[in-house]
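I'll show a sample.
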Amino acid sequence: IDLEHPRIVYSGPQAIRNSSAIFSAMMQELSGPDIRLLDLGCGPKDQKAPAESLGWKYVGVDYFHNNADLLADAHGLPFQSGAFSAVLSYSVLQHLYDPWLAMAEVGRVLETNGLFCGTVSFGEPFQSSYMHLSPWGLLSLFRTSGFQIQQMWPIYDTLVALGRIGRY
């Protein structure tokens, strides 16, 4: 597994949640005129502008957020099999009741050789989450869900993150 941060090649609009590394990694893998991106747990749809700046077709789903194109549960996605070229999930998996079921759904809605790219929070004390997925937990989740892992990198370590949160 490649553990290096991707070379930043994305230079389009910036989202509220910085996704330059994620879009840079996806740009290395995705090409063609008909890229369809599912933003799973899209929140305020802040990843829409970066995706559309690349000419990708964007659909944002969320369980709660009213800005979503569609309110949906990641455990049962309302899309046809193979509907998307890629799925982006920004800090969502730790909030899901059953991430294994959700990843099976992601695999179903991805086209053959589709791409999943996302982030998870690990070690944050005040997350409303069911589990904190360690790197080993992520490897287990993806491998048992039938995904081939190409690249995985840390944003910063847990101690740095906790230091930024301050006293709790």
In short: The chain has a mean pLDDT of 89. DSSP finds five helices and five strands in the chain. The beta strands are 36-40, 57-62, 70-71, 84-90, 110-119.
